[in-house]
Amino acid sequence: MEFPCGKKLSNNASQRTPKVFILLALTLIILGIIPLHYTSKWYNATNLANHESEKSSTYHIEDLEIKIMNDEICDISIGEWIPHPDGPYYTNTTCWAIHEHQNCMKYGRPDTDFLKWRWKPKGCELPIFNPFQFLDMMRNKSLAFVGDSVGRNQMQSLICLLSRAVYPIDDSISPDENFKRWKYVDYNFTLATYWSPFLVKMKEADAGGPTKTGLFNLYLDEADDKWLSQIEEFDYVIFNGGHWFTRCSVYYENNQLVGCRYCGLPNVTDLPSTYGYQKAIRTVLRTINNLENFKGITFVRTFAPSHFEGGEWNKGGNCVRRKPFRSNETSLEGLNLELYTIQVEEFKAAEKEGKKKGKRFRLLDTTQAMLLRPDGHPSRYGHWPNENVVLYNDCVHWCLPGPIDSWSDFLLHMLMFEGRRSHEEKLQFMKQ
Predict the structure, then answer these.
(1) Of all helices (H) and strands (E), which one includes residue 284?
(2) Is 292 exposed, middle or buried (0-12, 13-18, 19+ CB in 10 A)?
(3) Which residues, at least 6 apart from 9, have a Cβ–Cβ distance to it below 8 Å?
(4) Where does the Trichome birefringence-like C-terminal domain start and stop, copy by copy (predicted)?
(5) What is the pTM of this model?
(6) pLDDT, tens digit, for every residue of 202-253?
(7) Sign of the Cα pseudo-torsion (404, 350, 140, 99, in order)
(8) Which of 33, 134, 400, 423 has the greatest CB tally within 10 Å of its CB?
(9) Long-range CB contacts (within 8 A, 24+) of 11-19
(10) Where are the beta strands (DSSP E) in 73-163?
(11) Residue 196: Cβ-neighbour burial (10 angstroms; 0-12, 13-18, 19+)
(12) 310-338, pLDDT tens digit by residue?
């Protein structure tokens, strides 16, 4: 066999050399682009696994890799609860933010199976909450919870979930425990809560009232200034409410008495609680639409049903079930359905009006998921047996840890897609 040699070999090699370098350069460029491309699609689990913060032994590395499916269409509000043996991701001894009345383990709840479920939407996956990703997304931002004690329950759940990464410092501007601010210094992220159970202006007319739970004057066309005076500074606001509207209340519009609920006053028309609720929700969302300086995103978190069985809350009712319902075992009905319907209808109206003004509204729909969790309430495990408390069997609030932790799964899922959606809406608004 003969081999090429001499000058002829040198010429061929010199002609091929640029091609080799070009191919090598293209290969390096492609290899460089691929990681950059996938970095935008995946959250870096390796970096998170090496984070200095202590993590639960059940906090798997695959849970940290959350794929953002640009074309995914998923209704996360419809689904089933499925077994999840790795839960929970914190305990009542590792999180100091749990309100006493939701600290079910402390007060002797004997079962733990209610902690071993996760929400599985129909036809798609809802990733488990990733605290590091959430904090990165909230860098230099602020989030406020506005509403009743279930909203506070949600905020404390979020703090506990974030505790796997870092704890905040108390940055409150008031000593009132109903108005708290927490600062995540490393991320310049502020978390706040505004206790406003009716969302509108309220005055307590009688501490006792007909049912010993108070009598309240509600000004249904005036937003509560406790949150209204500060809400424009926030990037995200989550409104919730509903449970307090079953209390004895007197309704005012334009400072004129228009009726009441269970007030027992002579010559005053008794109106359903849904009347006051619809007016209040409408007032809140219209107020947001009329705030010129509010540039944030408004979430309406839908009603979380209570689960009293065997009687009303003050007549021996309790919640003693120890596992979730299947979706075909119960349905939304009665007052729960009415309150939910009001929220959705008022949300849609506000969203339509808001688009004309560049406002952004989102529906954080957790109602169906929570309807299926009668096992997640404190019941009698929110206090010591001999304590004198108003709500002895609590079937309204949620144990921590517990099923309410899934609300952060919902929230993170929605925030992941927010950038693209907000961009599209802004472009549409600018074209008008």
Answers:
(1) helix 273-289
(2) exposed
(3) none
(4) 126-414
(5) 0.82
(6) 999 887 777 777 899 999 999 999 999 999 999 999 999 999 999 999 999 9
(7) negative
(8) 400
(9) none
(10) 79-83, 117-121, 142-147
(11) buried
(12) 999 889 999 999 999 999 999 999 999 99
- Burial call 224-246: b when 16+ CB within 10 Å, e when fewer: bebbbebbeebbbbbbbbbbbbb
Classify each residue of 212-221 as buried b or exposed e, where b means 16 or more C-beta atoms within 10 Å of its C-beta: ebbbbbbbbb
- 3-state DSSP percent of the chain in helix, strand and coil, to 5: 35, 20, 45
Active site includes 383? no
- Is 394 considered catalytic here? yes
Catalytic residue, candidates 243, 307, 397, 413: 397
Spatial contact of 193 and 143, defined as CB atoms under 8 Å apart: no
- Read off the pLDDT band of 426 (50, 70, 90): low
Strand pairing category for 79-83 and 200-206: unpaired
Q: Which two tokens stand for residue 266?
A: 């002579």
Let me know: does 347 contact 285? Beta carbons within 8 Å. Answer: yes
* Choice among 148, 224, 375, 394 that is catalytic: 394
273: left (phi over 0), alpha (psi -120 to 50) or beta: alpha
CB 297 within 8 A of CB 359: no
